[in-house]
Task: structure prediction
Amino acid sequence: MGQLISGSGTKLISLQNTVENILVQPIRFSEYSIIFVDGGEGTFYSDFGAFTFNGPMLFFATPMQLIYIEAAIAIQYTVLQFHGDFYCMEYHREEVACNGLLFNNIYIEPSLQLNLADHKSFSQLINQITEEFSMPTPSDIVLKSLLQLFLAKSSQVKNRELDSAVNTIQRDDEMERFKQLLETHFLTLRKPSDYADLLIMAPNTLTKRCSKYFKKTPSQLITERLIVEAKKQLHQTRKTIKEIAYALNFQDEFYFSRVFKKYTNESPQTFRDKTGISIVADLYR
Result:
């Protein structure tokens, strides 16, 4: 449907639809991806998770996540993608707080169920982006503004959804405590049994309660949290691979590279080459 390419050949922002069948097989993208499901039913797969849906929906994926859609009933979707060089979420955190909400949050589903009003709003934004791509020379300023509006609206709806969930989902204080412990100790504690001990809980009990509450096992959350941090340091800092490996408490850069590649299918250097280094790497040094 349209794309904007940099002078060096990097895809900065693009829009593709169901006809192009880009999500029928597992695939990894170098860009951030937003999947706007207009209708239909199926399952969205993203790395460790599987999320059943009944459209209209929005799904969000970070660079190099393995994603695909398995349709149960014919679906229609549009994929909006953008590169970190085109729109830096960390740089625009004050305007649009979507990093850690829509993207890079391992504790909540990377999705939004849309009501009729929301569906109409996002459809209009998709139409505006489509119209801009149809221009003889699409404006990167207009496209960036429309993308920011799309992300801001998504964050607004996600926060509303989370506020509503507080009243409908039974809170598990022990699992919220596990979440806090993981955020504090993920660099040093790598086994579920470590957290079970801190919670004074049997490992099997932790696994059962975590799987029910977060829809992921403790092992999955521990690994995802570490990989999210690795991606963050590769994208948002100019640290060497060796320095990042040391910061993440790996015995050496080679072991770090093996673990990272196991879960992303790319080496740390290749990931950095594909996603680029964010402008915040130089702003906050």
